[in-house]
Amino acid sequence: MELLTTTGAASRKTGDCIIVGVYENGHIGVAASNIDSASNGAISKLVRLGDVTGSPGSSILISDLPGVRARRVLIVGLGKKSNFNVSQFRRALGTAAAKIQDSKIREITSYLSLEDVSGTNHYYLARYTIETFCNSLYRFTETKSIKKLRRPALRKFCIATSSRSDAIRVLKGAEHAQAIVAGMSLAKDLGNLPPNVCTPAHLARTAQLIAKKHKSIATRVLGESEIKRLGMNSFLSVTSGSALPAKLIIMQYKGAGKARPLVFVGKGITFDAGGISLKPGPGMDEMKFDMCGAAAVIATMTVVASLKLPINLTVVVPACENLPSGTATRPGDIVTSMSGKTIEILNTDAEGRLILCDALTYARRFKPETIIDVATLTGACVVALGHHRTAVMSRSDDLAGQLTAAGIGADDRAWHMPLADEYAQQLDSNFADFANVGGRDGGAITAACFLSKFTEGLNWAHLDIAGTAWRSGSAKGSTGRPVPLLSEFILRRARAIP
Ligand code: BES
Ligand code: MN
Ligand code: ZN
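That is the input. Now the predicted structure with zinc ion docked in place:
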């Protein structure tokens, strides 16, 4: 897709479609007034007729307006002028994107602008615009026999600004958005693939293909014998019921010489049946999404490499299935983790922490400057925060603050939950150093407490994406979250945002 900017008048712009905004109570924006006067008051007439109200969520697509060069004009409601803010702006973008998503429109010029909104800039204006439109075009067709649902991509996207000097920021934002959208699409594809296709080996192959495509990434995949040699018995206890071999995937991107790396660890359970602590049947198919943490960190790696960011990033993904069988781990089994700490596995369904603790211990060899794990870790997180906010837990309020701020910047929000010693007692065990579960209460926090036992001395944060990584119901599918948050966190560190 070609990215362009313009300062020209809306009525003079050629192409498939231009998008203009109209506020409530007949307040017409700059571009809409330009169209209005060029077309002998066509928009004012629609306002008088009540067909254009300017209310949020409303839109109307008109073709062949006299005096207007573009083939179509999409008029989008912006709400009250006095209330217009970043979220109203995003809502208008979403409305516009939804309206054109099943059309033949391939060239768009957006005159929706943030000119009247404080606290943001043209870089984000472009980021949100491109992200919203490109995300709305995502379709998963890989496993359909008829591929016609796949939409042809947009050819040209032009963003209008009032001054030429804004063009550099707009193009930077658009370029970053394209990389983030591509990353989100990869994360969604991996999440949406069925668990008989997206296996641990498939994740490993994907990571290797990415390294083939980006020369700046090196991928290594360890098999079960190496995992055993490393002493990752906690990880191995989870895969012991599965017929598929577990994989430990390591990806390294070097954009900053010898600097200590940022390390992302992603939970890669390609199917979570719960093991011997078997999950109930209804909705169990959704446990194919239990590798969305892995998908997000692998996808963020591609964002970083395609933008050639000046940072060092290492990704570690423990990947396996959690299934019941005669060789599966029993409730009550005790394993010695790679760190040497012993764990009493009281519930085999609390497997995410069992693979992550060994991956976190393994990651120490990279001397991480900061380490962040990303996991669909607990149903309790969904109870606490629902489907809108990812949970952030860290011993460092500073790091947690940077992550929640990145979530706001990227519009991929997170919420800082407490990680305090009081909760850790719930993991006490009579037989091992601690248990892998701490009861129902505060389940998302006790899971983080478990991980914190393996990250002593590290600048570490944990993201629980159980509520945000996928949607259920008729819109069932992976969301690509938290690729935007992670990308924003890195872009800020790399000082790549103008
Ligand atoms: N993958 C699940 C967490 C999950 C459940 C995410 C539902 C999204 C929706 C995880 O492995 C799990 O099963 N956690 C248990 C932990 C419990 C046994 C302490 C849970 O949340 O029920
Ligand atoms: Mn589980
Ligand atoms: Zn799980």
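The first helix runs from residue 30 to 38.
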